[in-house]
Prior knowledge:
eight-stranded parallel β-barrel; alpha/beta
Amino acid sequence: MKKIIIANWKMQLNRVESLELAKEIKKRVKNSQAEIVVCPDFLVLADVSKILKSSPIKIGSQDCAFLDKGALTGEVSPNNLKELGVEYVLIGHSERRSQMSESGIIINKKIKAALRSDLVSVLCVGESLSEKEAGKTKKVLLSQLKEALSGVDSIKKNNLIIAYEPIWAIGTGVTINPKIANEIHGFLVDQVYKISNKKVNVIYGGSVNEMNYINFLCQDKISGLLVGGASLKADSFIKLI
Ligand code: PGA
């Protein structure tokens, strides 16, 4: 099975840098064993999508609205994203949960909206350091899954991906032991199966770089990577794919 490698550019690049990075990646990736997705910010999505059109690289957005259309000032419709050529959408990233107060209810609505628009939802889940230290990792993950997937009845194998991102590993340079991550990925696959009767892919994110990525990709339950910092330079990103 193809591994899924998703680049999350967050809000780290300006317009010129984003377009240059997209062009550079396109030039250097003619074909790949992996499914590669880049998630630029909304402002450059259309242009990055044009650049990557005739390449094997897919486009994702970092978020979407929880409605297809309506009076939602400042939001971006998943339908409009789809029209731009977007195929994937990150939902419930921990930075949105913590800094934009995004609740489980909103995340659930976003998953439903994304699926209605035929986008692949990449649902991000993960525990904080204090939750990990209190031995609550699986409890937290299960509750995030149950909230996000409540009443979602259109899950197929290929329209939902879970990204396991321990919050304490994001942007810190600290990673989880890959064997422990593998065990947690197995747990997440099983729990999604119990909820939806579908077997989905679970990818890992949190301080992945060219030195450590292979330790994750060689685990049998880890179907790919969600990469922040190491996806911002073509040189480091290319090494992961
Ligand atoms: P990082 O970010 O690779 O910089 O830790 C990952 C993410 O937040 O998706």
